[in-house]
Design goal:
The structure is a homotetramer. The first copy, chain A, is α/β, with parallel strands linked by helices. Chain A contains six helices and 13 strands. Chains in contact: A-B, A-C, A-D, B-C, B-D, C-D.
């Protein structure tokens, strides 16, 4: 299968770059399954129902979230009728929505999508290592699921890499989100799981992690804010990871995708 | 000038990859100035005098540090007689060593090297934004310094990117260290400062941020450690950034360097 | 001199209990100098000009602040014309207002009031230990200042106790604020400085640190908030510390003050 | 029933003050059940089997722990044969020992003792609010348990007070530990649960939270340590809380206990 994961979409610039590229890439690369992290899609904070539907129409099969899942309060409601919208699985029991879903790809394959949050320098949710075991046991790769995509939304490189090793062999892809900067360490772990510490964001790289740089700079230097954070303007960059899996659901090829904006363009050589 | 910065050297594997490649690259690329971050060189924690000298002999002009600066207690002593060894400048007044130094390159140019630590999710040192202003004012780029290299040792992508913008135009290079994963966002900021959120480490990428994965995994899953952290074995990767500056000391070309190990090899196309 | 320090005033309940008791106590105990921490006076977050004046009219000689200093934006402006309003001294240079002031008591004595913030689990401000040295050197106890009152606004008991020892002999009183719970360890340190890890708050102890308990409980159990924090209702408690100093400005007597609400009433036996 | 809870015993000074007072108080006050927090009993870090037995012989019916539970590695082993030694219940499944135990008092009553850790500014363990529900449901007060004592080992006053309210009516006592400073807010919550934000420590209050003050001061001011933390010397203080329950297991009287050292002596008036 051909999988594409797109990192945290930040504000209008991020949404535009997804809408601009995704329909074409879906076609050109004959993608089987696309996941988009949408936690920052609505002005940098959370997601609305309209934006969620826009992503699905543009070619996303699933949308994942993170610590900003419910910044737009409407998400607490519409997530219940949005079976392809996945919030972190280690929120407390009773949290609206779902943390994992088995979703049918257009080719009929079953893809397990899991969203999970790290705990180091993050909100103290339930143990993600124990929680991923439960999710992976419920829909084992190669038995129930034809592919397994895990979005691990976490701050530190250490927790993310440990999580990748923990899942190695049991997922097609473990991909980090949240830091809004793509890392250069995409690879296939020994057990066959594609891994990348952070996929980076879809948005403008001219600011500070996708936001206009003035307010962050003010807070860092004066310790007192003056206004809200606003998404950075400037040309947007699409940032993602392309993964090809074999019949067992394990990764056989992995390559970054970056298109537009101030970063260097890169696309998979194998598609 | 041709500058090379190599990220956090982790343990024996990291040192070996530096000793293996640096003398040759220095020659082949006609490098004018090389900086190596050595905070994890001694078994993953700190640096010894012997290792510091090994780096200088292999072709480093300066060695920077970070939160592990003084994990090897001898560093508190020998740093006083090691003018090319730079610890974070925002440690309290009275800390042994220096946080910045104007160092003569082999071509006679004066290069200001500054090491600074971020504060988000790190030790609460003095304000790095105020401290860098003092250092940059003391040896302005293009007036006193022919090149200015700032190693910003920090955890979060937001503080690092804000710091890059803060210094833009006043440094040849602001480069992040500490997370041990190279980012893909190397670029030249509008004012002429080369920037990369994190340069990654020199060491084995088969573990967890350069350390053997068993103990980190144990602590993440059981919350109780069983032994000390040990550097990961496996083939090492050299990870760095190449920067070319013009007569004003601003960057005109920038490209990542990664050689060996499980990451994809990449070298500058322009040298 | 007879000094009274009242802890973080929280919302309307806190203000009422101060206005109810302070004028009477000022008279009855022949107080020479009164300091009130007002960082939570306006609905739990910050302070307004009207509230600040209310405190002065009720008998406060100085008002200190903390991490909520500027939650009410008007404080950034009126603090400049409020010489008795003191914000943490270790905010960056250029922050509106002042971190210390030498204020004339009604008996003509000069009292140095300093507000300082800790850094452990708090915002990364400048080093409070270095900053307090500068303040204490500028108006030494027994030479320039007849009394020195230091409000150390900090989270951890360790940083607060270390700060007390650091100042011992150089201040009449080092008193902790911020946790909103009075501690039972008021005492006079060997050098003559009265100390208490935290003075507690003026407000309702029926909630969670002065706020209505519903929203904190929701966030702790569901990790997703539903509304803003509101001050707790219920009968208020005045919480403070009484200190008597000798001719050298050192403390000779110290006793807690707690009046009203769900805590046990206690007043100094020596006045 | 007459219950006594003694806070974190720190080092030799702390142990001595427990051994000195506890046998006598047990007799004089006709205590039915005594719990001692022993997480810092062995040189400030953890507990040994010999010390644990010493506490039982001195009159403790149960010993609770905290974030230092396993600093002495032998505790990972002997805790399995020590049914009265309770470590935090929200450690991951598989952790040696137990997080709760129903222990028979000398008068034949059944007492549920639970140890739980908070998560704010602490290690990210499982949700303590969900975990305490499970423990309290398994041995309900007034049905299975004649008394329920919950040691909530946490950093912040907000999490501790929220936890007290959460358990109100379902426990005889919810008592905070970990900060090593007694608070003055002991009281009986509306539902009948005795509560105190922190019970303080048994040890010397002349240092910094029970440790000699030199090393903490060095680290706060220089940011670089020079030696290990050592318990403070000086006269010790016994610090605890006395609670009397009625036939339903709810608290009817509560009073602090502090004996010796630099704090003011206080004992219950009702025994
Ligand atoms: Fe995020
Ligand atoms: Fe994000
Ligand atoms: Fe490092
Ligand atoms: Fe580091
Ligand atoms: Fe406060
Ligand atoms: Fe505060
Ligand atoms: Fe503790
Ligand atoms: Fe403790």
């Amino acid at each position: 299968m051909r999988l594409l994961f797109l990192g945290d979409v930040v504000g209008r610039v991020g949404r535009q770059v997804v809408l601009q590229h995704l329909p074409r890439l879906r076609e050109a690369w004959a993608l089987d399954f696309v996941v988009v992290n949408g936690e920052n899609a609505a002005g940098g904070f959370g997601i609305t129902e309209a934006i969620h539907e826009e992503f699905l129409e543009a070619g996303a099969d699933a949308v994942t979230l993170g610590n900003h899942s419910f910044d737009q309060r409407e998400a607490l409601v519409f997530i219940e009728r949005a079976p392809r919208l996945i919030r972190p699985a280690n929120y407390p029991p009773g949290t609206p929505g779902r943390g994992a879903a088995l979703i049918e790809a257009r080719n009929g394959a079953q893809v397990l999508v899991v969203n999970m949050m790290g705990r180091v320098f993050m909100d103290p949710l339930d143990d993600p290592f124990a929680a991923i075991d439960r999710e992976l046991d419920a829909a084992p790769l190669g038995m129930v699921a034809d592919a397994v995509i895990v979005d691990f939304h976490a701050e530190t490189t250490s927790e993310k890499q440990a999580f990748g090793h923990w899942c190695d062999g049991r997922a097609s892809l473990v991909i980090g989100t949240h830091t809004h900067v793509p890392t250069s360490d995409h690879r296939i772990l020994p057990g066959g799981t594609a891994f990348m510490t952070d996929v980076g964001m879809c948005g403008s790289y001219e600011g500070v992690i996708g936001m206009d740089k003035e307010e962050p700079l003010r807070r860092f230097t004066r310790r007192i804010g003056a206004s809200r954070f606003e998404p950075a303007t400037g040309e947007g960059t699409l940032s993602g990871l392309a993964v090809e899996t074999d019949g067992t659901g394990h990764a056989v090829r992995v390559a970054p995708v970056r298109l537009g904006g101030v970063l260097e363009d890169v696309v998979p050589a194998f598609w």
